[in-house]
Design brief:
- The chain is of the alpha+beta class.
- The chain has one domain (9-63).
- It is 45% helix and 26% strand.
- The mean pLDDT is 90.
Length: 66
């Protein structure tokens, strides 16, 4: 994961601020700027992210029949 703003960072900031969230993970597939992702986390939530993403990946695989 790179450090610093990416092509969807402004949108990720808007979502984080609009939702008053401690963390946001934005994944874009084939968007108007291409595919990409942005992660913003204030403090400790970043340490929870790998487990959450692994759980999500398992759910997506199960839903897709893999």
């Amino acid at each position: 994961m790179s450090i610093g703003p990416g092509k969807y960072d402004d949108l990720c900031t808007k979502v984080r601020e609009d939702t008053a969230a401690d963390a946001v993970v934005l994944i874009v597939l084939r968007g108007n700027l291409g595919s990409g992702f942005s992660v913003q986390a204030l403090g400790e939530p970043l340490s929870e992210l790998p487990a959450i993403l692994e759980f999500m990946a398992k759910q997506i695989r199960a839903a897709a029949g893999h």
